[in-house]
Amino acid sequence: MRTRVVKLKTRMFSGRVPITREAAKLIPATSKFLSQTLSSGRRDGFNPKTLVGAKKCPLRLVPPVLDAEVSVVMTVGDCKYTRYNWRTAQLSRVTYLEAARRHIDLALDGEDLDEETGRPHEASVAACMAIALDALMCGNMVDDRDKTGKLKAHHKLMAARAGEIRMGFLMRGVKPATPPKQGRRRTGKALAREVKNFLRRKS
């Protein structure tokens, strides 16, 4: 697809962008529509606030259950430590990465809920990442990670090797073994049942 670089300058954007030739043909009409919409306030029922809102973070893409679950985990931290303590004191990056990894390992090992918070380990992982990201934003993150290795390339190599092993077994007619059923409840159903019981008690 052939493209060209054009210079756009409107009340919302100014700069050079690469676009297709087909899209370039629509620029005059689009620019005229945007200018008329912003100047007149409304055009055919179209609210100009929508244009401004389109430039903001698309928070609607983040499932709101994340906020609810993480808030419980953060409440435990608020009681044990000081609220937003990482904004006033430096924070170790490795400490929170390792904390998140411990919760991931426990979840992968079959444990559904964290003993301290009573919420899924995934919520604790999200809380760790929220604190780490906030500390990065505030400039209070101490990057105490080790020197970067070649882990990404090694992961690709091991994935290829694992694929070769599976293919070798399949070519010999050996079907992959299935793990035994543990008879454990499904986490999703357990959480849904918990919400349903709570709503029943409230009504």
What does this structure look like?
The protein is mainly alpha-helical and 203 residues long. The protein folds into 2 domains: 3-56, no CATH class; 60-170, no CATH class. The protein contains 8 helices and 4 strands, in the order ββααααβααβαα. The protein has helices spanning 21-24, 27-40, 48-53, 65-80, 93-108, 121-138, 151-171, 187-202, and strands spanning 3-9, 14-20, 91-92, 141-142. The protein has a two-stranded antiparallel sheet with strand order 1-2. A two-stranded parallel sheet has the order 3-4. A hairpin with a 4-residue loop joins β1 and β2 (14-20). α4 packs across α6 (121-138) and α5 (93-108) runs antiparallel to α6. It is extended, with a radius of gyration of 26 Å. The protein starts with a strand and ends with a helix. The relative contact order is 0.07.
Strand content: 5-15%
What percentage of residues falls in helices of 4 or more residues? 40-55%
In total, how many beta strands? 4
Q: Mean pLDDT, as a whole number?
A: 78
- The end-to-end span amounts to 59 Å
Give the helices and strands, then pairings.
Layout: E1 3-9, E2 14-20, H1 21-24, H2 27-40, H3 48-53, H4 65-80, E3 91-92, H5 93-108, H6 121-138, E4 141-142, H7 151-171, H8 187-202
Parallel strand pairs: 3-4
Antiparallel strand pairs: 1-2
Helix pairs in contact: 4-6, 5-6
Summary keywords:
mainly alpha; 4 strands; 8 helices; 2 domains; two-stranded antiparallel ribbon; 203 residues; two-stranded parallel ribbon; extended; single chain
